[in-house]
User: What shape does this take?
Amino acid sequence: MTRILLGVTGSAACFKAVALCSELVQSGHEVQPVLTRSASRLVTPLQFSCVAGCRALDDEWEPSDPAGMDHIILARRADLLLVAPATADFLGQTAAGLATSLLGSLVLAMETEKPRIFVPAMNPRMWSNPAVKRNTATLERDGWMRIGPVSGPTACGEEGEGRMVESAEILSALTSLLQGGE
Ligand SMILES: Cc1cc2nc3c(=O)[nH]c(=O)nc-3n(C[C@H](O)[C@H](O)[C@H](O)COP(=O)(O)O)c2cc1C
Assistant: This one.
């Protein structure tokens, strides 16, 4: 059993993260979902609470920890951070070390020795934008592992690289990481 912090950011692919959350739980992992404010407008925290069996969090000002320190407590407790889907905005904020959300704060509070994985999802032109490429490279240099994106039809009706990897592939990448593989 791995304690997974599942970060969900505001992408059209957010709905896939609900299924991913459910599959992670069914695979025997403990999952704590943390949504950004944008993600909470696209899907509800309650959907994640239902499948995770714990309260999904999306607001640092409405903490679950009695002392209000969710970003510290959650980062300390987690074995692994998985951000899926990861928006262009998340990549930029994280590359710059900003902490303007609960997710942003706990990214900074998480020990860098623990696995940190991001699964980008965005329009193909956004994904090929030089700023996004630069931010992606910064995260990878900082020790983050990336899964995807893949080519295919995107929610905006375009075709190209930017589509979020399906949950089965994320699960298999995670399993191989946890077993010490590639
Ligand atoms: C309907 C809708 C779909 C969106 N889909 C994406 C997306 O797939 N990828 C992305 O990078 N941004 C997408 N955005 C823009 C982000 O939601 C926006 O940049 C937001 O500030 C991201 O905040 P967050 O990173 O804190 O979640 C979308 C916005 C809307 C309204």
